[in-house]
TrEMBL record:
Residues 9-62, 63-117 form the HTH myb-type domain. Its main location: nucleus. Residues 9-62, 63-113 form the Myb-like domain. One of its GO terms (molecular function) is DNA binding. InterPro entries: Homeodomain-like_sf, Myb_dom, SANT/Myb. CDD domains: SANT (cd00167). The gene is RAX3. This is Transcription factor RAX3. It comes from the Eukaryota. It is found in: Nucleus. GO terms for cellular component: nucleus. It holds the Pfam family Myb_DNA-binding. Keywords: DNA-binding, Nucleus, Repeat, Transcription, Transcription regulation.
Amino acid sequence: MGRAPCCDKENVKKGPWSPEEDAKLKSYIEQNGTGGNWIALPQKVGLKRCGKSCRLRWLNYLRPNLKHGAFSEEEENIICSLYIRIGSRWSLIAAQLPGRTDNDIKNYWNTKLKKKLLGKFPRKDHHQNQYTCRAPKQDPKNPHKILNSLEISNGDSPAGCWIEPTLPAYIPSSTEIKRLLPKPEGTPLLISPDHSLNGTNSHLLATSPQPSSFTNCLSSSSAELDDIFGQFDSFYESTGMSREIIELLSMPDQVINSLMYPLMEASTAVSYQGSIGVNGGLV
DNA sequence: AACATTTGCAACCGCGCTTGA
DNA sequence: TTCAAGCGCGGTTGCAAATGT
């Protein structure tokens, strides 16, 4: 038995919103607010729409102070830098860009920025090219046992991945990132010896390409970009580490702190050192 | 000009989380 | 403490427009 539907699917309109529907919703919310109940809202407004659809329309399109134009270079920089750090946590990224919605940013990343920055990397076809941050695969019978802990395989991944699927890759989750941040200047990130990254170890931090940041990449010429990515490619090939983890490990502390500290202020139990433990996660 | 393919974006879906009774 | 309802998020899909052949 599945989850109960949030609305009567038979009697709700789907698809693009008409100007009349927009006007009704906008006018109602401006006068009365949402009432804290999106599910009940369509009936009050007189719309044959699902409450979730109304909420999405309001948040992504109708609410005041939304920016609809092109993204600025500064916004691009913020998106790229945050993506490297926290992955596809679009709502967190959107919180740093006033007037932008998570959906906007997600679409912009998937359609423009990804290509701009990573176009030379292998990719799959259009709708299978979503970025996916995955935790290491666990053995369902034993949560402590990790299967293929550092690989994203092609065969069992319906969404595909942007990294060469046969190469090892590990992308930290936002929870893991939170454990790393903020960290005092010069505090090393440790990769514990008990769980190597395909045989690599903490010494890699000291030998990873420096400096590296996507902020730098954005303002670089194509030749400079080739050089930057070339450094990563050779490092990547020699170590078997993913580009993401190399980026993470080689990012200057001050950049991480300036970008991420505001997001992580609420997190009081912050560990200043991260290490990749036996379960493949940062501990 | 016609057709195929790609791109960009709005919208939907489903699931985990939060809240309140 | 439990559980159902609602919310919010990230992933995915649909489709029109743009571009290529």
